[in-house]
Specification:
110 residues
Amino acid sequence: MGGPGLVRAAYNESGENQVAWPLWDLAGDLAVARGGGPVETDPMRRIDARYLRRRIVAALWIPLAFGAVALGSGFDSWVAGAVALAVVVVLLWLVAERGDRLWALVRRRP
């Protein structure tokens, strides 16, 4: 499979690697597709803070759910995994839907 022609095609005349890495290209395409465009300065057209928090929570969902399952697996207990997954869901919901109130509670000084 391949051959010397394929290896030579991956480098230009100066010996620099010119192969595009598929995952790097995919990440760049995703960043462009998800980009919000120009920054809005009009307060009536700005992105809602809850919308932004929901996007952040959506990105955090998979690693945190994996961590909850790994915790249950590490303790060899489905109960620990179920409780950890429930805690993850509740915390993510709190951040997404009640983030402003949660932040105000955290910042409140006694």
